[in-house]
Write a structure and sequence with these properties.
By secondary structure, the protein is of the alpha/beta class. Helix content is 48%, strand content 16%. It folds into 2 domains: 141 residues, Rossmann fold, CATH 3.40.50.1970; 185 residues, Up-down Bundle (Dehydroquinate synthase-like, alpha domain). The chain is globular, with a radius of gyration of 19 Å. The termini are far apart.
Amino acid sequence: MRDAGLRGSAFIVSDDTVGPLYADRAAASLRAAGFESATFTFPAGEQSKTLATVAAIYDWLLGQHAERGSAVVALGGGVVGDIAGFVAATYLRGVPFVQAPASLLAMADASIGGKVGVDHPRGKNLIGAFYPPALVVQDTSLLASLPPRSLHEGFAEVMKHGLIMDPPMLDVLERDAARLLAVEPELTTEIVARNAALKAAVVSEDEREGGRRVILNYGHTIGHAIEAVSGYRGILHGEAISAGMMAAAEIGRRIGVTPAAVGERQARLFERYSLPLRHSGLDVDAVIAATAHDKKVAGKRVRWVLLEDYGRPVVRDDVPDDVVREVVREVLR
């Protein structure tokens, strides 16, 4: 951290799943390096991504006498990074932010790019900022202790990167599924590094999502709507996104953009990694209504990220409403 120009104190923000496993060790390491440190934990899960959690962390930082030079360290998965990053972006008008991801989803995707924020009852990530971390520290050995479901959901974002930018990676995911699901160290590190580089390349070109970065939202329009309607309970982010990608592939097929083979291959990959293709029990109208609050909406038109082929994403805002309704109904049946 000193190589990144950080000095003084470093305050760890984690959840009650990751914190008990690694926070004491991380704090001890920081103190050994000359940093004052303390840890704040909150209940794990998307339901904690609220302004109430942010306010509680503000109160804690004030009680710790955190200064503008104090770093906020996110130790955990994507939710922890989003919350801690938003706190760092807004506490004292901005303090240094460090990402220490502890999940595959966070390592391969969420910790790269500087999007931070919290949810609103009407939609996911509607309150937030672009605030790149000063430093990202990745230790893939942490993935060996992930619960299987948490590991599997991370592969949804990995597959997304392959589908939109790196078709050869899909071959690796198919051929080496057993090794990746067993978290074989060398291969896992290669996949994480490959995904981080893919996302970093897009983000460096379009930091604030004014252009090409929008392709990273493949599957996220309906995926985020599913999360919002579910109340952010019971469905993990990657599980919502896999269903969202299936919906995007089917929308693309129905309007003549996406070859049927793309959706079929997606489905096989998702099933191999225990990712759902659909979510039953949610209200179709509510999910469709939630897409209207998607961050990609422009001129009151939803912009859909679709695939013309592997590695060839395209953005369309002319998808007929009846097609969307039919596909959402199919994904929710």
